[in-house]
């Protein structure tokens, strides 16, 4: 799971360009609109990022039952998240998410997912985590060569052929064969996955199964699509170019951009429509990573997601 915290920050108000009674507060790469009269520079606030779920308690009664925090547009500018007064005794930099009873929203899966785990093949198969660009975007340098792919709205899946059989897994567990669960259904509806895995035993293909949530990508009622986004070879992630060569025969997440890093341009890419054939809707977002794999002690593997404001503002 990517990092999701509710940190205490020190307020610095900036003018909203289109509203005299509103101000803008920047929190890393996030931007949040507030009523100017409610805050002054130096106040301590809790930043509650989008896709947080606030508890049903009096402190949040003003949300009128809409406890999932979204992106909203105020006077032509997106506001990402919510600012609340910091709890008594909290200090700048504290994570007060648990103290305030806030959780991270997890979309429900509409098909069978429970009671079907199994012990998987031996080896190390890391959970697939992508941190938020708004938190770690400073790790990229202007002009650094990067690759940007479309972030699809579905569920993580991984597949490997080992010891004479195909294995299917979710982000956290290997799954027993069951035609009702989405990971095996995705495998059977996309037979090229097993073909490729048999031709490359021991290599793990990571990707997204999709078409069954609120972004349909042109899928029919019982369709499950799959697109690969990474290959793991004996605990090592392959570089972008190498993965596409070895992964010939796989269907990949759409390539959005390959070239020098430019934050303004990259944020614009996140707001465009999906490149999946048949999709007639916005994209969920994008994933940015360097052309050559690298690690950073602050976030691990350097690859970051930007979730579209258009998507977050309309998400079910």
TrEMBL record:
The lineage of its organism: unclassified sequences, metagenomes, ecological metagenomes. This is RNA ligase domain-containing protein. Gene3D superfamilies: DNA ligase/mRNA capping enzyme (3.30.470.30). Pfam families: PHA02142 (PF21189), RNA_ligase (PF09414). Residues 144-306 form the RNA ligase domain.
């Amino acid at each position: 799971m990517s990092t999701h915290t509710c940190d205490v920050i020190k307020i610095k108000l900036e003018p909203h360009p289109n509203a005299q009674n509103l101000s803008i507060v920047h929190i890393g790469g996030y931007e949040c609109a507030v009523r100017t009269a409610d805050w002054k520079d130096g106040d301590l606030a809790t930043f509650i990022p989008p896709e947080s779920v606030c508890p049903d308690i009096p402190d949040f009664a003003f949300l009128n039952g809409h406890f999932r925090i979204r992106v909203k547009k105020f006077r032509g500018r997106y506001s990402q998240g919510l600012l609340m007064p910091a709890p008594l005794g909290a200090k700048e930099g504290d994570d007060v998410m648990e103290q305030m009873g806030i959780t991270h929203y997890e979309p429900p899966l509409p098909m069978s997912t429970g009671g079907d785990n199994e012990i998987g093949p031996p080896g190390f198969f890391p959970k697939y985590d992508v941190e938020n660009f708004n938190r770690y975007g400073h790790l990229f340098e202007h002009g650094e060569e990067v690759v940007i792919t479309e972030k699809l709205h579905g569920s993580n899946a991984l597949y490997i052929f080992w010891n004479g059989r195909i294995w299917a897994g979710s982000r956290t567990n290997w799954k027993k064969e069951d035609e009702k669960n989405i990971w095996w259904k995705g495998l059977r509806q996309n037979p090229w996955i097993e073909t490729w895995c048999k031709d490359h035993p021991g290599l793990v293909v990571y990707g997204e199964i999709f078409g069954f949530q609120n972004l349909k990508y042109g899928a029919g009622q019982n369709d499950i699509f799959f697109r690969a986004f990474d290959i793991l070879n004996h605990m090592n992630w392959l570089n972008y170019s190498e993965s596409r060569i070895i992964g010939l025969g796989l269907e990949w997440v759409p390539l959005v951009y390959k070239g020098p890093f430019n934050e303004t341009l990259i944020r614009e890419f996140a707001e465009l429509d999906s490149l999946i054939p048949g999709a007639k809707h916005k994209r969920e977002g994008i994933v940015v990573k360097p052309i050559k794999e690298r690690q950073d002690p602050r976030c691990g593997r350097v690859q970051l997601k930007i979730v579209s404001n258009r998507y977050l503002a309309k998400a079910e």
